[in-house]
Structures are given as C-alpha cells and as structure tokens.
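During the no-cost extension, the postdoctoral fellow (Dr. R.K.) reprocessed legacy sequence entries with the updated structure-token encoder. One reprocessed record is reproduced below for audit purposes.
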Amino acid sequence: MKYTIIEEKDKIILKDIRNFNPKHIFECGQAFRWYVEEDKSYTTIAYGKVINVKKENNDIILSNTNLQDFNNIWYHYFDLERDYDEIKKELSKDPILAEAIEFGEGIRILNQEPFEMVISFITSANNQIPRIKKSIELMSKHYGEKIKIDENFSGLEYYSFPTSEGLSKARPEDLKEVCKVGFRGERIVETANVIAKRELDLNSIYNLTRDEGKELLMTLPGVGPKVSDCILLFAFNKDDAFPVDVWVKRVMEHFYLKEDTNVKLIGSHGARIFGRLAGFAQQYLFYYARELGIGK
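Re-encoded structure tokens follow.
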C-alpha cells in the first residue's frame, strides 16, 4: 500500500492513504475505547497511549503521537502492513460482499491487546455497545493507570486498560456496582486470576490454529464460541475466525442461508464460504447489516 508519512509536531500525517476511514474502523464492533469528537474525529486509547484519528480528504491525521510510536504501536495497531485492496478484490467476487465492502470501504481490522480483548468481550456478552464502553471506561478508571498527555491535546483524563494482576484483585461486587458489569463480575475476576497466575498463557495463542486457540480460550470463565472468535480475530490475527452476533446471524440468514439457522451452524457456514478471509467478510457484513438494519 502506497502512502506518504509526514511527521509534524505531535502529529503523523498519512497522505493519500486508501482503505482507512476512522468511522468504519471504530464503529464496526471490534473496539470499545473510542470517542467521537465534535469535529467528527475519533479519540481512542490503546497500549497505554491516547491518539486522535481524523480523516481529511485522502489523508489521515494522527494527533498526540510521534514517528517512534507510529512505528512501534500504530503501524501494527491499524494493520497498515496488510494490503486491503487484495482482500477486497478477493471478497468482491461475491456480489453481496461487494456491496458490503463498498458501504464500509474504510474498515481495517485492529490488532489489539489480548487481555483487553478477553475482558472486553466477556463484558460484551448479552450487552449493548454504549453500556460495554461505559463499563470498560469505569474498569480502566478504577483499576488502570492514569495516562500522561499534553495539556494542549485535551483537558480530559484518560486511563490505561487494567492489567490482569490489577483486575484479579478486584471484588466482583465492586465490578457489578461501580463498573456496571452486572452478572459478569465473577467471570471477569476469575479470568483475570487465571491469566495473572499464568495458568493460561495468552501469548501462546499466536502460534495456535484458530480451532486450537478457540478451545483454549473457551476454558476461561465467560468465554463462549462467539466471544472466543472475537478475541481470536481482534487480538491474535486469526483471520479465519467468524464471530456470529445477532447482526451477522441476520445478514447470513437474509442473504446466504434463507432460513432461521443455529448460530453454531452459521459460524461453520461463514468459515466454509469465506475461508481464510472469513474475519474480514464478517466485519464488512456486520457493519453493513447493522447500519442498514438488514434482516431486522
């Protein structure tokens, strides 16, 4: 992918970059720590850093960062090593996906921190995005670390996502009452304990297949088939993972299966139809279905 990188004071500008739209990226269900600003830019928190992402014509402006952090964090976070033109070309052989891709042309799959994804998607179970975002922010404020930022960037306070050690010390009732996670409080603390004690090594999943990683993740309290696929896709580069939520179920039934179908079978159909690019297909279809209300 060809684009030019320009460094200015506290900014990186990606000139003439294709396949990159902050709205599509942050609002396609894969991330929860973002805010829309008045100028339609997006401020997000990842890897203990705060960054603002703004699209201006064909350029992307990353504020509150520098070239070192871009190379060490954001290049990988925004999946900039990947050729999305090739992915789109392959998936667009399917006419339904061609439409979905045109609608969400700027989607990129973020490479996010594994423990954050585990806890975030445990929190997401039977939940709505505004509530998920609120709970994650409260957990970060109470159990994470305050992030130092330039006062000229923002007068707000930002907090890093808690470590497994930090969350393992939380009381489930505090997570329920203070962080509004509901019945998920016990599961969050139990999972944080397992990971903090190294009873499950998250980093080992990078070297496993999707099925092997799925089996391992599902030993954690609160991690089922859908949650495990989300974690695999958004943290571990398992591009063949195909998470099935209510919107993916609707769009698959509407366009591909033509009947009410068991969620587990939809996942296997997605993997069969879209193969090694199933995760990308899922993101395009999810955004397309939710934004247009397809199958509702």
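The chain has 14 helices and six strands. Strands lie at 4-8, 11-15, 34-36, 42-46, 49-56, 59-63. The remaining legacy entries will be reprocessed before the final report is submitted.
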